[in-house]
Amino acid sequence: MAVTPEEIGLCGCWQVIAVQRESLDLCQPAAAATTEVGYYAASLSLEQRDDAAIAAIIRAHWSAIENGTHYRRDVTLGEDACRVAHRKGAAVLASLRNLANGIYELERERERTRVDTLRSWCQQQTFSSTWPLLGR
User: Fold this and answer.
1) 84 Cβ contact list (under 8 Å, min separation 6)
2) Does the pLDDT value for residue 6 go beyond 80?
3) Residues 6+ apart with CB under 8 A from 103
């Protein structure tokens, strides 16, 4: 069903895009594929980007998220496994994870560490070794 962005309360958008994704759990080959639909709002007009270009933008966005920050926060720092129920506590933990990720990235960029993974770097850190890094 086609709708305009204004009809769904997204004034200023030029397009609303629906993307259907099918996923397979590679750990359970016999499991059926799951299907989900993601919706995107874009300020690009139809003339600015064709369907293939929009799909490439969405794919690149998710690739960067899944292979970058999300992977580190989830797999390395166990964010999805964390069961903190209080909103403020969860927000504090997310901020600390972002801080650890950011400091690690800065140290790698400045070539001040030879450790190649965030997990290894975090395991080597103590408060007294990390505190001076915040002032640099």
Assistant:
1) 90, 93
2) no
3) 130, 133, 134
Burial class (CB in 10 A: 0-12, 13-18, 19+), 9: exposed
**Strand ranges (E), 30-97:** 34-42
Give how far Cα 71 sits from Cα of 46, 97, 113, 115, Å: 33, 12, 21, 17
Residues 6+ apart with CB under 8 A from 115: 121, 124
Beta strands in 32-114 (DSSP E): 34-42
Question: Token pair of 87, please?
Answer: 């909103």
Are the C-beta atoms of residues 104 and 122 closer than 8 Å to each other? yes
Q: What's the confidence (pLDDT) of residue 2?
A: 66
Beta bridge partners of 55: none
Judge contact between 100 and 77, C-beta under 8 A: yes
Which positions ≥6 away from 101 have C-beta within 8 Å? 69, 72, 73, 77, 118
The β-bridge relationship of strands 34-42 and 15-23 is antiparallel
pLDDT of residue 89: 93
User: What is the Cα–Cα distance from 51 to 60, expressed in whole angstroms?
Assistant: 14
